[in-house]
Amino acid sequence: YGTQAISHQGHLTIGGVDTIELAKQYGTPLFVYDVALIRERARGFRQTFEDLEVKAQVAYASKAFSCIAMYQLAIEEQLSIDVVSGGELYTALQAGVPAEKIHFHGNNKSIDELTMALDAKVGCLVVDNFYEIALIKQMANERQQEVAILLRVTPGVEAHTHDFITTGQADSKFGFDLHNGQADQAFKETYQAPYIRLLGLHCHIGSQIFDTVAFGLAGEKLVDKMQQWQTDYHFTSTVLNLGGGFGIRYTEEDQPLAPKVYVEDMIKVVKEKVKKACIPMPEIWIEPGRSLVGDAGTSLYTVGSHKTVPDVREYIAVDGGMSDNIRPALYEAKYEAVIANKANKARNQCYTIAGKLCESGDKLIEHAALQVAQAGDILAMFCTGAYGYAMASNYNRVARPAVVFVEKGQHQLVIKRESYEHIVKNDLPFTLKKGE
Ligand code: LLP
User: Fold this and answer.
1) Domain enclosing residue 167, as ranges
2) What is the ipTM of this complex?
């Protein structure tokens, strides 16, 4: 992946930096991000829109991995930013992200979160439901402040990794149903409302998607709706946001397309449809998360204990687990790994990699073909850049790992490892009086 290589000592290197040295300097578990690969992915999306001469915004879905340095890198690569909570919004603003580049999502934004977004003057609110429409209208009126919005709709196209289904009515907690009148109602409540500037439509059809058919289909349905509003209300939509969900390769079973292909196919279908509908070509916005940072992240762990279950399997345990990567336990997600200090040796062992948390399901990889492993070796698990650190927890009061960025032989700590002091920081002593 990306700038990974094997040094003459047989060590895995990323961005020209020896992962064994990183493990020594920063400790393990450690997330290492290949900055060059993130840049390459970002440019892959952006350049394709430019080549096709389509006005676009590529917004980084920061739920995949967010921290101040990540937002700063995204801005350097001219991405917009998708945030889904007050916490992400706060971090992005702290990082210096220009507010107009921020799109704010969420199916239950609180009044505090909306106030924060309006105070900051974020670029766009992606409005999800009628409750939110009422809130925003009221707040915008009271503040006499213009608010740009997109309406999030569920088009009845759902992508499931390798295929997709279309349903008349999508059962989703998100957005307005496109087909049962909800989207039209949301439109009527917003398109002429004072201080509300309706830009267009948004949809997100799923995550880790490997083909482009479902994106095209969703795009067509949204363009149909735009055409209807154009005809019936002379309303011109200026933005069509098709969400994120572009797949990456975790194991050899996954065969994702290049960012360029996703964009090209999507644009081809939308352009044709727009032409037929006789409406102006809207700006196309997308929201990749996983495909920008997923394969750029590698987790480093130190191997500790070893257990043989005769005739069944051999476990090796590492110093992290479901507290820094819940995806195997939660989604049966598959990963590949290597013993990073023996990367040039043959992979002639089969191990199940266990985490250190008190739960039998805390296994990171089942039956991994690996080099012979001993306590003290460094295990590198690939493609952990999306929804790894982002979903990390303090389960078992385990501290969250540190995160480093590497590029061109340089390395930099971007998130410190949590300390035990951090872990008890919000705890207060017990003070209730013992009853009689
Ligand atoms: N836009 C919206 C509205 C979304 O809900 C999501 C992801 C994205 C963009 C970015 O999708 P991506 O390009 O990263 O696939 N925790 C799960 C993934 C949850 C995705 C939620 N929404 C996982 O670890 O696989």
Assistant:
1) 52-293
2) 0.99
